[in-house]
What we know:
Elements: E1 12-15, H1 21-32, E2 36-41, H2 46-57, E3 62-66, H3 72-86, E4 91-94, H4 109-137, E5 148-153, H5 166-186, E6 191-198, H6 213-220, H7 231-241, E7 253-256
Parallel strand pairs: 1-2, 1-4, 2-3, 4-5, 5-6, 6-7
The structure holds beta-D-glucopyranose (BGC).
The site of beta-D-glucopyranose has 9 residues, from loops.
Amino acid sequence: MAVTSQRLAHQVALVTGASSGIGAAVARALAAAGAAVAVNYSGHPEGADAVVRDIEAAGGRAFSMRADVSREDEVQALFAETVQRYGTVHILVANAGIQQDAKFVDMTLAQWQKVLDVNLTGQFLCAREAAREFLRRGPQPDISKATGKIICMSSVHEVIPWAGHVNYAASKGGVMLLMKSMAQELAAHRIRVNGIGPGAIATPINEEARDTPEEVESLLRLIPYGRVGQPEDIGQVAAWLASDEADYITGTTLFADGGMLLYPGFESGG
Length: 270
Ligand code: BGC
């Protein structure tokens, strides 16, 4: 077994939106690196329970718990349960996110509000509880150099404007400055705060954009590296970013997008 495979040993991670897609892969990757994992979900328990079973079958520790990240009381209950079971939290991956797409002129206030509530307010509420727990517990240098690590799941759309998705793009732009401002404020406490900016990863959130071969082809035109990402691509990034190998990284978004941010349209244009 590689030395780095247990680089999160003795640590506790909480991953929101971990019943499917990127969150599930992140939960599995953190557990494989040795962390005990709180697997949060908001809808049906089946996906989260499957993640927990996989982790336990591989010899790891995990439990699942429902909480709507946009509800303060539910977020607080999620952290309280995790601390009660595992003693503390060292790593938060604020991953839960949704899309509710509509043309700008047709977008309802409810669509706008729901996406901002989950994607942005949800990250605020989870990160605040995590930081409070890190400060309460204090440094544990034998376990990790940082007192705590917060990873905000962002998107290439914290940078790339996205017609038909203004609520989503606005939420991710907000996540970027939430992340950087928290990083600035918490650095003195040795709390690292970073983002991950996935591109197009094959998950339920973008299933509709990959329905037909034509759609896949048009998606691939946006990805210089020539493949749609897999959830595991992001899981690996999260496990590394949470580890001491990344101890000097704070306030940064790490993009894992197959080059989407290279503006491939300019390869021959401009
Ligand atoms: C969105 C996906 C989209 C990808 C690239 C992600 O943040 O959730 O639906 O495929 O960005 O545009």
